[in-house]
Design goal:
The protein is an alpha/beta fold. It folds into two domains: 1-30 and 193-226, no CATH class; 35-109 and 152-191, no CATH class. It has helices spanning 3-10, 15-28, 96-106, 151-168, 177-188, 196-207, 215-219; strands at residues 40-52, 65-77, 83-91, 112-116, 129-133. Strands 3-2-1-4-5 form a five-stranded mixed sheet, with helices on both faces. Strand 2 and strand 3 form a beta hairpin. The chain is globular, with a radius of gyration of 19 Å.
Amino acid sequence: MSALGLQRVLGFGSYQTAWTILHRFRRAMVCPGRERLQGIVEVDQSYLAIRDRRVTPVGKGTKGLTTKSIVVIAVEILEPKGFGRIRLQRIEAESGDEIVPFVREVVEPGSVLRTDGAAIYRELREEYQHERTVVKNVIRADAIPAHIPLPGVHRVASLLKRWLLGTHQGAVKPAQLEHYLDEFVFRFNRRTSRSRGLIFYRLLEQAVQADPITYRQIAKKSPRET
């Protein structure tokens, strides 16, 4: 549900109140000390189109400026088929300085790591069983399409884009994107749960353990935006 939808349902007089409540819950959706992904794990990046309503492009009639944000995605692959848990993180560039620490943080050493043929993963070969596949790009147009060796990443990227566009109309502040990613991960990793009440209970349990946060802290621009 979007903040506007929550405001209408609960009858809040302020949009900021609903927006703050949702972001407080999003910050509680990351469980401290959560287990790392293991087994077979796909890792790749995807681009998200984020529309910032606060900025109006010069010469444009519609409000909002669309920018591209890079998100690195890790997906557990179940055998013989299916997907397990996922992890998402916004990064500034497709570089080893950004991606390698993410892999080490979210993937258990010794796991099978499936990636494309990018050289940035080479330093992880001693920590993981690295399976790399050269995929189709501008240089290697004759190679395998990326969605074939990395189906999990591309499925998750497609669902994420659909959720951001359908629920939030793609209008997510870049500084808050990581918290929307946390919500998507929380929901995706519990998609097979048969008890919606248990999911609600788990969120409340994590919420009461989370540090209090104010609207000003949530709305504050990140260093990357200043």
